[in-house]
Amino acid sequence: MAAPYRRNVIAGLVGLAACGFGAPAVWANQPVKKSIAKPTPLPKSKLVFLDPGHGGRDPGALGVRGTQEKVVVMAIARELQRDLQVGGRYRVLLTRASDSFVALRERVARAQAAKADLFLSLHADSHPDSDVRGASVYTLSEDASDREAAALAARENRADAVVSGVRLADQPDNVARTLVAMSQRGTVNDSRRLADTIVRTFGSSGVRLLPRTHRQAGFAVLTSPDIPAALVELGYLSNPQDEKLLTVRQHQIALARALRASVDAHFGAGIATRKA
Ligand SMILES: [Zn+2]
Fold first, then answer.
1. CA 30 → CA 14, 25, 27, 33, distances in Å?
2. What's the burial of 60, exposed, middle or buried (CB within 10 Å: 0-12/13-18/19+)?
3. Fewest C-beta in 10 Å: which of 16, 145, 183, 240?
4. What distance in angstroms lies between residue 61's CA and the mean position of ligand 1's atoms?
5. 3-state secondary structure labels for all residues of 60-85
6. Torsions phi, psi for 52 (to 5 deg)
7. Does 22 score more than 80 pLDDT?
């Protein structure tokens, strides 16, 4: 389900819960408002949140030649930010703008507070076997998703939670649970579509891929209930060839281009679905 459609369904659900079912009698007594034609607003640019992994006291993975993950992912995030901002179709914010430590849940909270439309976490991997190389893309696993939904819908966690624009604290238990479940399920589906798009784009751009490229895990940065999110491992710093490539400017630019094309395809597909 595309996000805007999901939001409408959720808004409808809350509307029904809020007014009960005796509401039409009240509506009948409402004065009829004159409709005033408003100019159609310009389409809002999408807000893309980029999350360069690690930072500050946490260098992330270390390459055999001493390359630090936090440095290469920041370089690629900056390149992608520049790329996405060209043409004004996207606004782009970073979860960390400098070499600073930001906790994982805080990264998600920043994207939620800014009402991001998409969340992309950028990392580079490490493996005990130095032959292992290639990129991979992660989305939130089913188990982790169910755990998050249950935790968010739990009464004690609802105080400040807003899902699809609705404050959970104002809702009865059953509505809060339904809202979170619907939102989370739709978001996971959107995230998987996004991940498959990145895998395809990387493949056609000549980026070397790990077998079973799209994987699922319980990464904390992927737990937003209403922002499609993927975590991209751009290569292995434990592999000498990948380490070299990740520090080469041309390769960083190529990765950023492929990610920009994936973001374009993701939102392009969303627009096509809505028109259909
Ligand atoms: Zn990492």
1. 21, 9, 5, 9
2. buried
3. 16
4. 6
5. CCECCCCCEHHHHHHHHHHHHHHHHH
6. -70, 120
7. no
Beta-bridge mates of residue 166:
163
Locus of tokens 């995230």: 191
Going by C-alpha positions, the residue among 113, 230, 116 that lies closest to residue 162 is 113
Centre of ligand 1 to C-alpha 263, Å, is: 21
Percentage of the chain surpassing pLDDT 90? Answer: 60
pLDDT in tens, 222-234: 988 889 999 999 9
pLDDT grade for 191, boundaries at 50, 70 and 90 = very high
Tokens found for residue 56 = 């500050």
Task: Output the CA 3–ligand 1 centroid distance in Å.
Answer: 28
How far is the centre of ligand 1, averaged over its atoms, from the C-alpha of 188 (Å)?
Answer: 21
Q: 185 and 72 in contact (C-beta within 8 Å)?
A: no
Q: How far is the CA of 70 from the centre of ligand 1 (A)?
A: 8
For ion ligand 1, residues whose CB falls within 5 Å: 53, 60, 123
Q: Set out the domains of the chain in order of their start, with CATH numbers.
A: 44-142+188-275 (3.40.630.40)
The amino acid occupying position 46 is K
State the Rg of the chain over Cα: 21
